[in-house]
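Per reviewer request, we include the raw input and output of the structure prediction for the construct analysed in the revised manuscript.
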Amino acid sequence: MIIRKLLLVLPLFLSVSCFAQIQTGVYFSSDKKFSKITEEFGNPLPGHPVMVVTTFVPNHGSYVWFLNESKAKHPALLDDEPKDLHAGIFVEDHGGLLPQITFNDFAIGLSQPNYLINYCEIGDANQDGFPEFYLTYFQESDGLDAKPLKVIVYTRLGKKTFSKAKITGWIPFQEEDDYHEEKDDNFKLLPKEIRLKAEKLLKEARKTLD
């Protein structure tokens, strides 16, 4: 199997629940409002944003989700300009941003993480009135080992703080190896609707790697 290099693409399928009150906007550097958004909120993470999502959730506040890339800190060989990934969910507070939960992954050696932007979504799968944040990315690497495709789910589920749950699909490099999935303990505790949503995203993202 040949793993193609993944490129960022502009279209984002944004999944929002039937709760009409949840208002969500997604912005890329090519959008007219992108500069206004980044000027208003600044950039709380290393690197530069490749996507910014704003979400107003009634009774919970306004949230901002940054997905950033920065120049890799460590030498990496799979890309002429290797990049590290940084993401974070923040809540607006008196004109500023308070961090809720962050994500980092780094390029090093023969490993290069890449966002799968088309499969980074916000949704309310269990319809509890508070959205989940689904971060999907692929860990490209050289060699014969299987490559991880990950969907990370950030949720609150009625709690004050966010939690992280993860499902990983291991993409085989050698034809004789089998594809398999791993779910961490937090993922197994998620409501069924959220698990199914994450599993669907993983399945759809995997198709882009064949």
